[in-house]
Write a structure and sequence with these properties.
Mean pLDDT: 91
Number of helices: 1
Strand content: under 5%
Helix content: over 70%
Order of helices and strands: H
Largest sheet: none
Radius of gyration: 47 Å
Low-confidence stretches: none
Distance between the termini: 159 Å
Number of strands: 0
Length: 111
């Protein structure tokens, strides 16, 4: 009976050793994987920060361009108004010149 008990104890110790070896092997595989994941997470965090900075810079540039477009649009509108004013003035001058020419022709024809 003692042999059976000693055999069972030896088997239990061997089984416990096998469990410990298996646990240590899994732990040794997991630790580098965890470190790799941490490194990847840090790298992704840096990329997100960089992209966020780039996004804010682009947003700033877009706002500057939008302000420039608005300024140019205002200048175009002002130039159009000035053009209309000049065209109206030109038409008035042309009408006055035509009217004076017509009066001069009437005088020549009457006289």
């Amino acid at each position: 009976m003692t042999y059976i008990l000693v055999t069972l104890i030896c088997a239990a110790v061997a089984y416990l050793a096998w469990i410990m070896i298996d646990y240590l092997a899994v732990e040794q595989d997991l630790l580098p994987a965890i470190e790799r994941r941490r490194g990847q997470a840090e790298k992704l965090s840096m990329e997100v920060e960089w992209e966020s900075d780039q996004k804010s810079k682009l947003h700033e540039k877009v706002q500057q361009i939008q302000r420039s477009v608005d300024d140019l649009q205002a200048r175009v509108n002002l130039a159009r108004k000035e053009l209309q004013t000049e065209q109206t003035l030109l038409r008035r001058v042309e009408l006055e010149v035509n009217r004076k020419e017509l009066k001069a022709r009437r005088k020549v024809a009457a006289g």
